[in-house]
Structure formats: structure tokens, C-alpha cells
Design goal:
heterotrimer; A alpha+beta (about 350); B mainly alpha (about 300); C mainly alpha (about 280); B: two-stranded antiparallel sheet; 14 helices; 2 strands; C: about 280 residues; MetI-like fold; 13 helices; transport (chain A)
Chain lengths: ~350, ~300, ~280
Amino acid sequence: MSSAPTTNPSVTLRGLTKRFGGTTVVDHLDLDIESGEFFSLLGPSGCGKTTTLRMIAGFSDPTEGTILVGGEDVTSTPPHKRDVNTVFQSYALFEHLDVRRNVGFGLRRKGVDRSSIDKRVAEMLELVELGDRAKDKPSRLSGGQRQRVALARALINQPKVLLLDEPLAALDLKLRRAMQAELKSIQREVGITFLFVTHDQDEALSMSDRVAIMCDGVVEQCGTPEDVYERPTSVFAAGFIGTSNLMNGLWSDGCVSVSPTVSIPAPGHQGSADGDPVSVTVRPEKIWLTEHTPGMFRLPGTIVETSYHGATTQYVVSVGPDLTLTVLEQNLPRMRAEDRWSPGDRVEAGWLPEHTVVLR
Amino acid sequence: MAAPTAEATRRTAPRSAQRTRLWALLLALPTAWMMTFFVSSMVIVVLLSFGRTTNDGFPAFALRTDNYEALWNDVYLELFLRSLGYALATVAISLLIAYPVAYVIALHGGRYKNALIAAIVVPFFASYLIRMYAWKALLSDDGLVNSALRNLGLSDGITFLNTSYAVVGGLVYGFVVFMILPIYASLERLDTSLIEAGKDLYHGPVRTFFFVTVPATRAGLYGGILLVFLPALGDFVSAQLLGGAGTFMVGNLVQQQFMEGQNWPLGSALTVGMMTALTVLMVAYLRATSTQAREL
Amino acid sequence: MARRVERKPVVAVGVTIVFFAWLYLPILAVALFSLNDKKSLSSFSGFSLRWYDDLVHNEALLDSLVASLQVAAAATLGSLVLGTMLALGLERIRGRRGNLIGAVTLLPLVTPEIVTGVAALLLFTGIGLKLSLTTVVLAEITFSIAYVTVIVRGRLAGIALEVEEAARDLGCTPFQAVRLVILPMLLPALLGAGLLVFALVFDDFVLAFFTTGVDPQPLPVRVYSSIRFGVSPAINAIGTLMLLASALLIVAALVLPRLLGRGTSSLDLITGGRR
């Protein structure tokens, strides 16, 4: 799935590399983003995602490689001539101009006539629900409103791709959730390609059509949110998104032996020879402590730790010497407090073999 | 650093160059200006200090050390030491005034803080000359102070002018603001919980003040000392207006050589001497303060 | 413990009160005696505007006033342009070269004015420039660039680099980004710096003293030559007017940026700013 050739590419990166001094921040990156896609670059700080974005915008010159926007090589095009717009982390609003002029700034630079600017600005402000703040200076707006002005200011130019650099990072949690939904619906409405940079996995998973997980300047995995969550292809990808029970062991005869007493079957896995070291992971919410179904792989163990998270309860189950599993259980309506497990309870952890993911 | 490939270099060079060119262009004019009107003028001072005065009384470049030899006598040395003494006294008195004032405004000024600071800044930005003149008028033999003293029968007149006190007083009046502002700024930034913590630790406001508050505002203190010392050492207006021949400073001498005596080479040597002394003191001072800052 | 915190430092408050009295006493005395109807500087015998009337009819003095205003305006303009260019350039050119240029610009701030004045005098005479108001302006610009640069750099630091990138992103060339976005956002700082420089140059005596020609002389130089020969009520009147003008300018420098938006006022810049 990763970087599959696309029919209508909006952004294409080939061998994109950036070095600062001796450090390689982005390392031979290949990426194809389809037109109209909501694409996220997800990774920890320092992974090179923002640098990649800045190279696409034109603020940073690649050391090597090419950047194509809408099929056109823009590698050496200055930012003001690229058909790309950016929503900055700090919003970077022009404090000396009112909201209307901020939003109309790009069109005015393009020489669009005044009446069409006014019309399009008004439409755009309606879209981001700021129609009544047109004449306010940015300093009078709240964080969420400033964010929407920044969005409108970029979107109004109808770029081939909109770059968003952690635009929600400065908002508080509740507002961030609301803005996520709004951004997604705006993107659907305008149909512009969004390239979204974030370190927040929930944000990336809930909004994106596709996600690329970056680490140390390379893409670890690229795919739909479901792909990268359910079928991580690397230890980093598995560890970065969600909680995962990562165990190291040796491949032998369709199973991974992670300790002398525990051997986990992984029927779907191919390509490893007996004796190969591999890692194996299973998501905490795939593990059941009760109501096992036939065909489940089961491991007896003891609850060593519980923590209540509201909608869920997290258990740490010891299934062998130095081997624990994290298990996430829904707090279903029929469950009462006394139905939950307590430390010391003997349990059986079971999951379907297809939920075992083997990573090489 | 790994060398970028030839292809990448070729491709990205033009744009980087274009960007740098704009900023280089912006810098070019002011840099050229400073080189022409500041740096080169300093060079001329140094050159002329080795120069001579022609028979017609015009300054000329030469390569002799006469001017410096002329400086090496008791009269000039005393003048140098006196200037240094006045400047140091000015710094000390300014410090004694500025710290309490800045402290009161910063920590107890409440909502009048800005108004109080403005009240200090306004007269100080107003003409330095006029302020010196104001003191002259006030302290002169038939000035307000003396007539008040006479009317009250306290004294039949005190000569204030032409004394070291008057000159140093004028210098303090002229430059104390440069001590107050940096100290005020560092006190404003001071985390008051530090003082609270200090009071628990050191028991008592006096020890807290010297062990916590003063060290925490060291940057402002060091800055203020420099900002008062520099102009005080080079001043000639205070000594000219409030003092007399017995209280002249290096600045007066320089001024005389250029504007009255017309011995420019000697004046240049004096200027270079002043700058050298200043540079030595500054370097020593900066070194001492920076090591002290490191130790903490 | 609360009691200890509340306690006012009595000695320090005393010093502050005495300080303010000492600060304003001579100035107020000058202002007062400028309204005296007698020549005495120690006893106020009656209210009169005669000394101000004298001033208005003193041609030479009026010429000097005009000269000073011209010098201050020209120097303000020149140092604003050069200082802003320098600040913008230094923001980008970092590293050793930038540090060196930055240090050279700041040198006039740590050089005693008499040295700068003497050096300027030698330079102008050396290159055969006749001393006049023009030479005063050149010297004052050189001296004032540092103030503008410091203030503008302070404001630039508060403008995210992203703002300039946003301008580029929205279709500005590098030059347009400066003209359409950076400069307008710097406006409060530029205004503050301009007023500050104007006030400083208008009042500046030392540089003007060394670099001016004979006629007309800037106001401080003329005032100096009269003061040297003694105290007179006419000078009280000039002094009072100069004080008022300076005070007005400073207040404007402090208040205008506030009125123009949320920019830092020059006061904040002088005192190191409050965040």
C-alpha cells in the first residue's frame, strides 16, 4: 500500500533529503499524495515531518531530491510561486490587518479584482463561521477563531495542496476535538488535498484518509488509519500508535516463542525461517479476559495491576516470568464495580490468532 | 558535513543566493555607513594622535610619539586620576540612590509603576544641558539655596560651585537614570517567590536582600554600572558648568585642545588615552563579572 | 510570615521620596524663575512673560531652534532607514559575520560621546567637509542607528519568523513580504524609535558642539555658549520650553505605540520589556 503509484498525484516526493550540517533530518523520502486526499504525516518531534512540510512549501531547500506538486517540478520554485498554501502552527496572522484583509491577502497578491475578492472572502468567512468578525483585528479573536482565520486565509487561494503544520497544537483539548471534526468536514466540502503534520496519533487516525508514520527522517509505514493501527509493519509503528504488547522472540514452526513457556501462534505470517528473531505484538483491546470463543489462543495469568479509565479499565496481566500483557476492557453497561478484576485474580488472556502481528 | 551532490547544488543554489542577496543588500548600506562615519573616524583619531601641529598651527599626520610623551606628566596624570575618581564616585552614589528607588517602584509601585518610571525618564531625556544649568542656577552664590540659607539666618552663603561635590553631583544627576532603569528591569523580572523562599532560608529581610535579591538582579547592576561609568568618565559639561579649573576632567582637556587650544594631535592622544583606559577597565570588568556569573 | 511580606522598606521609600524631590527641584526652579518679572534668580517678585517675549524676538535663537528641528528630523529619518535595514539584515545573517556587524553598530552606545564627537570632527575636517548642519546630521545619524536597531530588533524578535513565511506563502516576493507585512507590523516600534531619536538628537549637545559650523548653530550649542557666561532669566525661559518639548516627545513616544495597537511601548524597550 505504501507509496503506490497513483493516477492523480497531488504531491510527489522523490528521494527528498535534508541535511543540516552533519545530521540528516529527512532521508530519501518517497511519497505520493493523491488529489483530494487528507494525508497525515505522523511522528514524534524531530522526526523530520515539519522539515518535509517546509520543503514542500518552499521555505527550506532540499539537499537532494525532487518535489512535484500537481505533476509539476517545484523543487527550485520560490514559495510565492508555488501553488501551495500553509496553515502555520503559530497561525502567523498579520496583526496589522483585519480578518477580512488577512483572508483576502493571497488573492490581492494574485491581482484578483476587488469585488471578487470581497465576494470570495465573505464566502470563505461563512465557511469557517467567522462572518461577523470580518472587521476585527486578529488580536481580538480567540485561539480557535485565529486558527480558523489562518485556515481561511490559506484555503481561499484554492491551492493544489494545503499544508497544515500542527495547527491544532495550541488549542485546548475540547476545542481541538471540535476543530478536528470541523477541519475534516471543511476538507470534504472544498475537496482540496490536505497534508497534515501532527504528533497526535488520535488526530491523525480520526481525520486522515491515509497516514504516514515518520521516524528519524524516514517513513516507517504508510497506509489507511486502519492499516497502520491493525497491521503495523514495524516495531516503531506498532509502538508509536496506541499501546501495544511488544514481545521479542524466535520464530519456530508457525509460532513465536517469547519465553521458555510461552509460544504464540501466528498463522498468517510468512517469510521467516525457523530460528529467526522476530517481534510480536497484540493490541490490548483485542485481548479478552472472559467470554473466550473457540479458536482463541489462551494464556493463563495473574492480574498484577488495574487502572480505571472511565470508559475502559486497563489491566496488567502477568503471564510468565518477566512477561506481562496489557489488556484493555470496556466498562460495559452490565458491568458493575465488583465485576471488575482485582490484583491477584487468576485470569485467562485470550485473543484470536489473526490479531497477532509479527514484526521483523 | 557530507557534500551535497553536484546536481542538488546546481538546483538549489540560485534560490538560496537570491534570498541571501536581499539580506546582504539590506546590510550593505548601514554597514558601509558605520565603516565610513564611525570606524574610519576612530582610525583617524588614532593616526592623528601620532601627528604634529605645523608651524601655521594646522594639524598634520606624522609618526611621532611627542603627544603621548607630553601626556606623561603630573598634571595630566592627576587629571586622569581625578576623572577616574569622579566617575567611580558617580557610580557609587548612583548605585546607592538607584537601588532603593528601583526596588520601591518595582516591588511596591503597584499600579503607579509605569507612571513613576515615566516621571523619572521624562526629565532625564529632557536636555542634559538645561539640567546642568538648573543646578548652576540653584547653587550659585546668589541662587535660591544660598538666599534661602541667608534668609533663614543659617549661614551667610556657602560656595557650592567650583567644588568636586558640585561636579560629581551634576554627574549623578545627569546619569543616575541609566542605573535605575536596568536595575528596575531586572527587579521587575525577579520572581518574588524567590524572596519568600529567601526569607525562610536566611531569616530576616536584610540577609535575604543581600543573599537573594541582589544576586538575582546582578545583570541589571552590572549593566547599570557600565552605563553610568562610561558617560561619566567622558563628560565635560558638568565640570565646565558646575566646576572650575580645579575640578576639570579629561573631557574638559580634550574639549579645550579641539575647540580652544587648537592642538588637535595632543587632543587626539588624550582621546586615545581615555579610550585605552576605558577599554582596559571594561575588559577587566567584563571578565570579572562574567567569571562571577559563572560561579553561581 | 504574611506580616513580613507586607512590610514596606521604610528607608528605601524615604530615599525614593527624596530622590524625586531632588530630581524635580532644580527643574521646577528654572520653570518658576522663567516667569519672574525681575532678573533675580533667588526671589520671585512677580509674574511676567517678558523673558518669553524676549525669546520670540531673538532672531538668532529662533534660527537655532529651526536648525535643531531640522537636524533632529533629518537624523531621525536617516537613522530610522539605516537602523531598520540593519535590524532586518541582522535578523537573517547570523553567525560570526552578523555578530561582528552587530557589535560595530552597538559601539557608539558604549563610546563616550566626546570621543565620537572628536572623531567625527576629525573625519569631516580630514575629508574636507565644511562643518555645518549637514555634518551634525551625519554624526547624529551614526550615533542614533544603534538605538533604532536595538528597538526594532526587540520588536522583530516578537514577530514570529512564520509571519514572514506566511507572507511568502501567500504570494509575496521577499521584498514584498518586508514591505507589506514586516514593516507595517514594525510600525509601532518604528514610531517609538523615531520619537526617541528625535528627542535625543534635538537635545544632544556634545556631538552637535563638535560637528557644527558657525551659523546657524543647533539650539543646545547656542544655549551652552550663553550658559557659560552666567545665569540669566532668558535661559530659564528657553530651558523651560526645551524641557516641555522634550517631555511632550517622550510622553508621545511612550503613549503613541500603545494607542496604535498592542505593540510594546518604548518604555518597555527602555526598561527591558515586560512579558
